[in-house]
Write a structure and sequence with these properties.
The protein has 6 helices and 9 strands. It has about 210 residues and is an alpha+beta fold. The chain has one domain: archaeoglobus fulgidus dsm 4304 superfamily (archaeoglobus fulgidus dsm 4304 fold). The strands form 2 sheets. A 7-stranded mixed sheet has the order 3-2-1-4-7-9-8, sandwiched between helices. Strands 5-6 form a two-stranded antiparallel sheet. The longest helix has 16 residues. The relative contact order is 0.22.
Length: about 210
């Protein structure tokens, strides 16, 4: 699927989350951003901490926005809200749009954490393995990210990320969506919250996985 990356009206839907484990609260935020970095729409969804409804939450945001002019989707990680795993293939097939999922740290894999934290880990392991391998990309800012791309090749994915990244390693649609999710969580009494796939994320696809709470 070819994207017209230089088109001024290019629109990306960026989706990110914020959550707390006690009490368990998680919010997804979606932000539609144009190629000129103007925000052009936003929506929120609620998902379950440690649950299995992250895929449904992503699809809910897209349906809530009801936009036919979105050209691509960016996700701030696929393992979010304490192992609530997004089925990237299902999202891609249902939306029919190029999809780029980003993480920001190297990872030795999550199998042992899933097996340790969940009494019946089989479905989460299946979804995790279905994600496939990540590919390292170096952005124009000099920072390295790790991407899974569906519907476009890695070079197009890199060009798309560069188009929407001003500095650092987090593209603007994801940065703004992450801020929105944190604010929504704070308003609902969830404190500052954690954003699972920022540079301080837990799955590295993680730095905080070793810490139980």
């Amino acid at each position: 699927m070819h994207l017209q990356l230089q088109k001024k009206g290019l629109r990306v839907l960026g989706i990110a989350e914020s959550f707390v484990r006690t009490p368990p609260l998680s919010r997804l935020a979606g932000v539609v951003m144009r190629g000129d970095l103007r925000i052009d729409g936003a929506a929120l969804a609620e998902i379950t901490v440690a649950g299995d409804d992250a895929t449904a939450g992503v699809l809910e945001i897209f349906q809530e926005l009801d936009r036919s002019d979105v050209n691509a989707v960016m996700l701030n990680g696929a393992v979010i809200s304490w192992f609530n795993i997004i089925d990237l293939q299902q999202v891609y097939e249902e939306l029919g749009l190029p999809l780029v999922c980003l993480t920001y740290e190297e990872s030795g894999g999550l199998d042992r954490y899933i097996q340790e934290y969940f009494a019946w880990p089989e479905e989460k392991l299946r979804l995790y393995h279905r994600l496939g391998e990540r590919e390292a990309l170096t952005l124009k800012t000099g920072y390295q990210v790790y991407a899974r791309a569906l519907g476009i090749d890695l070079q197009e994915a890199k060009a798309l990320l560069n188009r929407f990244t001003l500095d650092g390693r987090v593209p603007e649609p994801l940065r703004v969506a992450r801020l929105m999710a944190r604010s929504a969580l704070r308003l609902e009494g969830g404190g500052a919250g954690c954003s699972g796939q920022g540079p301080r994320g837990r799955d590295g696809e993680g730095k905080e996985l070793k810490r139980k709470s």
